[in-house]
Structures are given as structure tokens and as C-alpha cells.
Design brief:
about 260 residues, alpha/beta, L-arginine/glycine Amidinotransferase, Chain A, 6 helices, Arginine deiminase family protein, hydrolase, DDAH-like
């Protein structure tokens, strides 16, 4: 059975790192309930949801995607751009060690949210959280595993996957990338069919491919309809409280399928 690794919302979640958004009051109970609903959506998609150890003193611990890049049977442990988050990566490495061959980045900065894998190509955003040294380090590890790394500079959103995600194969057999063209240059992607997020739905380019489904934020109905028109099964969930911490659907799980 495919597996999705998650981590609980920390009691200190309201103290999360913020880069592009202003700080707003966060209802912790509501955020935790939305996260549980997200995990239920993963289960509906056929995934075994495995929670990594709680990190109650780490406000951003729920964003497990930033701490590792899963490539088949390999787990590349990252070096998150916010130094306060480095212990999260250590916890993830320990938890995944019995399931994956673990590799560790040793220099630079790299958040997993900046890593978008499509087949054997890995697009990596160069951002405030991910720098050139981190990308070069990942390219060295991933290259030995048969992947090509393509750098994507951006500065208008937190991570590459805030503004571009892989939706899967549509009903015409095309690889589809959902993108906000105001944030991410669509021309960097090769041999894919591009679907722009709907006007006024700036954060609508973050969808989570989970098996044969797309898990998608309920706040962006027009973009969801574009995806359904292409034949995708879209399971909408409310992550409004989590989004106050610059959350995207992809950042709250590590997908192994």
C-alpha cells in the first residue's frame, strides 16, 4: 500500500516561520482539525497514513515535506532554509531509516517544498529557503540515482510548489503541471501540458497528487473545475487556517507510492 508520512500540528504552530505573508491569529484547534481532515483525504486516496514523531516545540513541524525528498527507495534528508527547522530533518531521518536508504545533504540550504519531481526530472526552486549550494548538493545525490536536476529561480512565493505542482496524467495522456504564471515561469517545464490557476486564485496552483486523485484546497473552485475538465478526480479539503502559516497541501506530507 502507498504511504503518506505526516506529522501533527504543534501546539506552537502560531509561532511558525513566515516569509511572504503577514502574521495572523491562528485557531490551533481548527488548524488541527483541518489537518486531520487532510489525513482522511489521503486515506480515501488509498494511502496508509503514518505519523512521524510529534515535535511539540517546533512550530513548523507539520510541514514534513520540507525535511526530505523521497526518490523511490531513497530518502534525501534536506537542510531547511530556516535554521530553526534543522532538528525537524534529524527527526525525519531517524523515522525513515528503517524504510528507505537515507542520504543527507551536507551543505547549503534546501527545503523540500522547492522540489518538484516529474519522472526522472527534478525541478528545484532557488528561493529564500533554497540556495545554489543546496541545489548543487541535491544534484550530486540525485544524479547518482539517475535523476536530472533543473534549477528554477523564483522570488514571488515561498516555495516552487507554492506556485507549480504536478497534477498527473490527464484523460488525453498528457503530463499536466498546474502553475501560477505570475509566480513561476511556465517556460521552465518541458514536455508537459500547462494549466494556469484561475484569475484571483493565486494560491490555487498547489495540488497534491495522491494516487489516482488530486487533493485540492476548497478555496479555489474555479481552478478545481479546470482540473475536473481534464478528467482528474478532485477531492477538495479546507486548509484555510493552515494557510495562514504559508501552508500548501503538498507541504504537509511525504508521499511514497
Amino acid at each position: 500500500m502507498p504511504t503518506a508520512f505526516t506529522r501533527a500540528v504543534s501546539p506552537t504552530f502560531a509561532d511558525c516561520e513566515l516569509t511572504h505573508l503577514g502574521r495572523q491569529p491562528i485557531d490551533l484547534d481548527r488548524a488541527a482539525a483541518q489537518h486531520v481532515a487532510y489525513e482522511r483525504a489521503l486515506e480515501r486516496a488509498g494511502f496508509d497514513v503514518v505519523r512521524l514523531p510529534d515535535l511539540p516545540t517546533h512550530a513548523d513541524g507539520v510541514f514534513v515535506e520540507d525535511t526530505a525528498v523521497l526518490l523511490g527507495n531513497h530518502a534525501v534528508i534536506t537542510r531547511p532554509g530556516a535554521p530553526s527547522r534543522r532538528p525537524e530533518a534529524d527527526s525525519t531521518a531517524a523515522a525513515l531509516a528503517d524504510r528507505f536508504e537515507v542520504h543527507r545533504l551536507t551543505r547549503g540550504r534546501l527545503d523540500g517544498g522547492d522540489v518538484l519531481t516529474i519522472g526522472r526530472k527534478i525541478y528545484v526552486g532557488q528561493s529564500r529557503r533554497t540556495n545554489c549550494a543546496g541545489i548543487v548538493n541535491l544534484a550530486g545525490v540525485a544524479g547518482r540515482l539517475g535523476y536530472e536536476v533543473i534549477e528554477v529561480p523564483h522570488d514571488k512565493c515561498l516555495h516552487l510548489k507554492t506556485g507549480a505542482t504536478y497534477a498527473g496524467v490527464d484523460d488525453q495522456g498528457r503530463d499536466v503541471v498546474l502553475v501560477n504564471p505570475d509566480w513561476i515561469d511556465p517556460n521552465v517545464f518541458e514536455d508537459v501540458f500547462l494549466v494556469p490557476s484561475a484569475p484571483g486564485e493565486d494560491f490555487g496552483a498547489n495540488a497534491l497528487k495522491a494516487g489516482e486523485r488530486l487533493i485540492y484546497p476548497s478555496a479555489y473552485p474555479r481552478t478545481a473545475e479546470r482540473l475536473r475538465t481534464l478528467g482528474f478526480t478532485v477531492d477538495e479539503v479546507d486548509i484555510g487556517e493552515l494557510e495562514k502559516a504559508e501552508a500548501g497541501l503538498t507541504c504537509m506530507s511525504l508521499i511514497a507510492d
